[in-house]
Amino acid sequence: MGRATYEAMSVALSTTDHPFSDVMNAARKIVFSRTLKTAEWTNTTIGAGDLAEEIDTLRRGGDDHIVVWGGIGLWRSLMRLDLIDEFRLDVHPYIAGVGTRPFENVPESYRLDLISSTEFSNGIITLQYHRHR
What is the pTM assigned to this prediction? Predict the structure, then answer.
């Protein structure tokens, strides 16, 4: 995750009874940041080196599935480096009119294949795509 996501999630999940707290507290977490100096959340390390090299190290270390929990800058960097194999996007039934556009400054041709879609009773739709190679 990126620094801002780390800061928000660590506060929200490290000391609460949120349904994801146990999973996230036990999980190995890496914060990709050039400004963060310490990471207090349990099982967290800071990745401050070259992003492609850091991801390659994770993959060689046996991490079959690397999940990016947030950080639009990190996500865009991973897209530019073509390091994302699968996308899971949640579409919420709310139009803010402002905000960050996730697909700005990314490769123009980035073909995805829809694998599944799930609609929930609250109107949220989860879309799962694989990167077309």
Answer: 0.80
